């Protein structure tokens, strides 16, 4: 007996099916997977931030009887954001080498040891790459992650890298705002003008639109032959595909206005000098604006913003005069000793103690981070702000007062209220605790709830008090 063959009337061919948007349904692993209940959820975002050397002791906040944070000199530009800050004190790195500059960089966001004795690269992925691999953090965005540098060349050696895709696989930074703009916004239309790589002809735009048009007739034909459970799953995939179509149309269809607030960023006026404060301020502002607008356009949800490099000198920055070296790295060394802290140095002709000067140097970088946080805070999103859905995870490579060791590391978590972070506090731990536990808490906040540890400490567990 011949097998029963269903009539072909009303069914599309396999080739036609795959050419239609329905083909995307069966390629669903390449689309953002989500449940019906979560389809309107606001996206989560992560920004890793690095600033050079360490912070002075004045960076740690004071607290009153009610636990309210009082910010010291280096963090003056965070005034008004106190409720967004989560400090954790008594965190240590798990191992060290030499003066900790390279060991600190390797494990800053990876929790790993050296990959080898030659490169001193990290022997594992950084937390952003772990989350991209294990969770839906990327969503439907076209770019998985972006890595930008300020006051640094962006080169890929061990003192300039903060993120890794895997063991011994550093991810270099892009120091040029104009090149970063081209990479982030290729094909994006901003009110009639397009970034490099955008479709330039009517035919190109029409073809691009048709790539994402839904073939409703073909879909309905197939749906008629499905059971109830299969139709429900098909509806979920169609919702995801429709969302992807709507996400792409505003930035690729010249006849449709871009997303609210999604706009071109002027990248001119930046010079590659790490010794002029005004240039660093401009450079940092432009790179931060690029990140914010990449979030607004939903081009990416994962970023890394690095200022300077491990042990960077920035000689003469802020008009520093300190004997024959004028190196900020040398001034940082003075912050450890009580007598050395009172040594006189000059900033733009004004005599200051080494401690006060170091606080001003640290503030230069902190102000750039505060600018990013305030921009995100000012953008409404969902039932709060974009900062509520974004974690800025800021770290340095050495412990307090540039101690050249792995103890009392200074990580600061900014924002992320809707991710469950208990911001607005100084979490003073009773004893020295592994920084890997804080990383594990961050994994949990972004959905990797099965993580039992991080890096070389696979079973350290999360840190109590970080998440609600």
Chain-wise SSE layout:
Elements lengths: L13 H6 L2 H5 L18 E6 L11 E2 L5 E2 L14 E8 L8 H7 L19 H8 L11 E5 L13 E3 L2 E2 L6 H9 L3 E2 L2 E2 L7 H10 L4 H8 L4 H25 L24 H20 L5 E6 L12 E2 L6 H6 L4 H4 L2 E4 L2 E4 H24 L2 E2 L2 E2 L4 E6 L16 E4 L9 E10 H11 L23
Parallel strand pairs: 1-10, 1-16, 4-18, 5-10
Antiparallel strand pairs: 2-3, 4-17, 6-7, 8-9, 11-12, 12-13, 14-15, 16-17
Helix pairs in contact: 5-9, 9-12
Quick structural summary:
The chain has 468 residues and is α/β, with parallel strands linked by helices.
Describe the structure.
- With 468 residues, the protein is of the alpha/beta class.
- It folds into two domains: 1-30 and 200-253, no CATH class; 45-191 and 260-445, Alkaline Phosphatase, subunit A, CATH 3.40.720.10.
- The relative contact order is 0.20.
- Helices cover 31% and strands 15% of the residues.
- It contains 13 helices and 18 strands.
- A seven-stranded mixed sheet has the order 5-10-1-16-17-4-18. Strands 11-12-13 form a three-stranded antiparallel sheet. It has a two-stranded antiparallel sheet with strand order 2-3.
Provide tags for this entry:
alpha/beta, single chain, 7-stranded mixed beta sheet, 2 domains, 18 strands, 15% strand, 13 helices, disordered N terminus, Alkaline Phosphatase, subunit A, 3-stranded antiparallel beta sheet, 468 residues
């Amino acid at each position: 007996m011949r097998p029963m063959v269903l009539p072909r009337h009303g069914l599309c061919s396999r080739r036609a099916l795959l050419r239609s948007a329905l083909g995307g349904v069966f390629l669903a692993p390449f689309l953002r997977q989500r449940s019906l209940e979560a389809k309107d959820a606001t996206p989560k975002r992560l920004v890793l931030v690095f600033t050079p050397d360490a912070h002075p002791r004045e960076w740690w906040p004071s607290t009153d009887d009610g636990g309210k944070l009082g910010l010291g000199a280096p963090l003056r530009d965070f005034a008004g954001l106190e409720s967004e800050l989560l400090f954790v004190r008594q965190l240590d790195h798990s191992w060290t080498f030499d003066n900790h500059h390279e060991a600190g960089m390797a494990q800053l966001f990876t929790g790993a040891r050296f990959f080898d004795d030659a490169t001193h690269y990290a022997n594992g992925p950084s937390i952003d790459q772990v989350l991209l691999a294990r969770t839906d953090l990327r969503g439907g965005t076209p770019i998985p992650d972006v890595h930008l540098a300020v006051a640094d060349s962006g080169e890929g050696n061990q003192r300039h890298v903060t993120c890794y895709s895997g063991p011994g696989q550093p991810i270099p930074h892009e120091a040029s705002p104009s090149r970063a703009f081209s990479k982030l916004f290729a094909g994006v239309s901003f009110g009639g003008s397009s970034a490099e790589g955008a479709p330039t002809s009517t035919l190109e735009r029409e073809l691009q639109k048709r790539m994402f048009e839904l073939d409703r007739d073909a879909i309905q034909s197939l749906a008629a032959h499905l059971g109830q459970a299969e139709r429900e799953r098909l509806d979920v995939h169609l919702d995801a595909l429709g969302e992807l179509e709507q996400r792409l149309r505003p930035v690729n269809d010249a006849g449709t206005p871009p997303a609210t607030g999604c706009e071109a960023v002027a990248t001119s006026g930046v010079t590659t000098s790490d010794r002029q404060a005004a240039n660093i301020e401009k450079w940092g502002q432009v790179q931060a604006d690029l990140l914010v607008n990449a979030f607004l356009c939903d081009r990416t949800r994962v970023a890394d913003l690095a200022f300077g490099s491990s042990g960077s000198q920035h000689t003469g920055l802020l008009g520093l005069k300190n004997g024959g070296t004028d190196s900020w790295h040398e001034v940082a060394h003075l912050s450890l000793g009580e007598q050395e802290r009172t040594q006189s140095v000059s900033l733009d002709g004004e005599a200051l103690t080494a401690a006060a000067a170091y606080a001003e140097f640290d503030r230069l970088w902190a102000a750039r981070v505060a600018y990013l946080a305030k921009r995100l805070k000012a953008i409404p999103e969902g039932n709060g702000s974009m900062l509520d859905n974004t974690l800025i995870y800021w770290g340095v490579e050495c412990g307090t007062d540039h101690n050249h060791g792995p103890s009392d590391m200074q990580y600061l978590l900014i924002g992320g209220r809707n991710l469950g972070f208990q911001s607005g506090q100084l979490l003073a731990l009773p004893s020295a605790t592994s920084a890997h536990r804080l990383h594990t808490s961050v994994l949990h906040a972004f959905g990797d709830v099965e993580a039992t540890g991080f890096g070389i400490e696979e079973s350290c567990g999360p840190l109590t008090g970080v998440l609600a």
